[in-house]
From TrEMBL:
It comes from the Bacteria. It is found in: Cell inner membrane; Cell membrane. Keywords: Cell inner membrane, Cell membrane, Membrane, Transmembrane, Transmembrane helix, Transport. This is Transport permease protein. Residues 250-468 form the ABC transmembrane type-2 domain. Belongs to the ABC-2 integral membrane protein family. InterPro entries: ABC2_TM (IPR013525), ABC2_TM_bact-type (IPR047817). PROSITE patterns: ABC_TM2 (PS51012). The keyword Cell membrane applies.
Length: 476
């Protein structure tokens, strides 16, 4: 069979796919791959007292410095004296050493809300500010005190001086500075891209040499098995999918209605009873429900894959891993159908669709690989320990509540935050939600989490399955 495998054709397809996807990924990923959040951000939110009316003879200077390369945003705590005012504030950020202006904005005070945080409109990131002495200069053109606004101060903890009309104030302005850092991944992306291409070409050449010399190779064995048993795999997937909706009146339509009805019930409960304030809650909820339902269904079906095919396993020789894989892939059909209602809800709620949605398949593929690994583990355990199905029902229920499907992750106390970090489904769902709801690429570390959890689980599952599969027949 090895001679029938066209490695050259497969190699051309893989190399072309790598070049196209790798190039598109850089541009779709955008600045999220090149710039990340910094731990050096400043925040002074503990309000102490206002600075007083800001009129045309008032000059406020807040000095500060940041230990980061980039400033992404600046916000100020403002008060309007509970009225609508007229006039402008002039905000200027300068480099004190060179005297150059890094950013300036004219703020219409009639748009300000009382006792709120006002975010300056920094469209382009302010670069090269690390360690520099910076000053935020605020003046006004308002002459009538009945139209004036004020800024709040906060207790000084970093000894950054605040001057009001040249006089030193004992506090800081109540302001926040969101900083960013250049990420090495984005900075060296093309070097990584070329290195990956060279590794791929080297691996392909190695496969060709092994095929030519008729040597054993895990990759060649996997490709051979796929070619040899692809018809059987397709038949098993079709059988499992059709069996699920056998004698059902609505049949395949349940793939549409099930996630929608689940979302509708949970939306009513958490948006009215518990008053969820999550932005775009319908899409937030449905995206989590769709992905977790796939995980739950794939693992549940994979768990019974060996036991359910006992008659075939004891009579016909077929690689046993085909059975859990076929169960997971039959669930993939439901997943793809469930994405249609998700798209429908996105359109209804006016969710902005950007090119970042093209990154969503990465999260789905990682979830798929994770489910295959889990199916290997669960199906193996089920053969030797039939109570596995009942234990899994409890574990999957706990897993659902440990994953932020219908609640924001911010409500989890810090002492329990580790639960999210070790929860693979949290990372997969978070990845997918960022591409949909925020319209940007997740940060590079998010890709790493997804890859590690999916591949590690797949590897562990494959090892467990391989070690135990020879004993299946004795326990069926």
């Amino acid at each position: 069979m090895k001679g029938k495998i066209n490695i050259k054709k497969i190699s051309i397809i893989l190399t072309t796919f790598y070049l196209i996807v790798g190039t598109l990924f850089y541009f779709i990923g955008g600045e999220q791959l090149r710039i990340g959040k910094s731990n050096s951000s400043l925040s002074y939110q503990i309000v102490d007292s206002p600075v007083g009316e800001i009129l045309n003879n008032t000059k406020i200077e807040q000095d500060f410095s940041v230990n980061a390369d980039i400033i992404n945003g600046i916000s100020l705590k403002v008060a309007t004296y509970a009225r609508i005012n007229k006039g402008n504030l002039f905000v200027n950020l300068i480099d004190k050493q060179s005297g150059s202006s890094l950013f300036n904005q004219v703020v219409d005070v009639s748009n300000l809300k009382d006792n709120s945080d006002f975010f300056l409109n920094i469209k382009d990131r302010i670069n090269g500010v690390k360690g520099k002495e910076l000053a935020l200069i605020i003046t006004s053109d308002i002459s009538d005190s009945n139209n004036s606004v004020t800024l709040y101060t906060a207790k000084d903890t970093n000894n950054f001086p605040l001057y009001i009309n040249g006089k030193l104030n004992q506090n800081n302005l109540s302001f926040s500075v969101e900083c960013g850092e250049k990420l090495w991944f984005g900075e060296y992306y093309w070097f990584i891209f070329v290195a990956g291409l060279l590794l791929l070409i080297t691996y392909i050449i190695n496969l060709m040499l092994k095929q030519k010399n008729e040597k054993q190779s895990l990759s060649l064995n996997i490709i051979t098995a796929f070619v040899k048993y692809k018809f059987l795999l397709r038949q098993l997937v079709e059988r499992d999918f059709k069996t699920k909706y056998k004698r059902s009146v609505l049949g395949i339509l349940w793939s549409f209605f099930n996630p929608l009805l689940t979302m509708l019930v949970q939306y009513i409960v958490f948006s009215t009873v518990f008053k969820s304030d999550i932005p775009n809650f319908p899409v937030y909820l449905l995206s989590g429900v769709v992905v977790f339902n796939f995980f739950s269904e794939a693992c549940g079906m994979g768990l019974m894959s060996i036991i359910g095919n006992a008659s075939l396993i004891t009579k016909v020789y077929v690689p046993k891993y085909i059975y859990p894989i076929s169960r997971v892939f039959s669930s993939v059909i439901n997943l793809l159908l469930s994405l249609i209602p998700l798209l429908f809800v996105m359109l209804i709620t006016g969710t902005k669709i950007t090119f970042s949605i093209l990154l969503m398949p990465f999260g789905l593929i990682c979830t798929l690989l994770f489910c295959i690994g889990m199916a290997f583990i669960l199906s193996s355990a089920m053969v030797f320990f039939r109570d596995t199905q009942f234990l899994w029902n409890v574990v999957s229920l706990l897993w659902m509540y440990a994953t932020p499907l219908f609640y924001p992750e911010t409500i989890i106390p810090d002492k329990f935050s580790f639960i999210l970090k070790i929860n693979p489904m949290y990372h997969f769902i978070r990845f997918i939600r960022i591409t949909i709801l925020q319209g940007v690429s997740p940060e590079p570390i998010a890709y790493l989490y997804c890859i590690v959890f999916s591949l590690a689980t797949l590897l562990i599952g494959a090892l467990v399955f391989k070690k135990t599969q020879d004993k299946f027949v004795l326990n069926l």
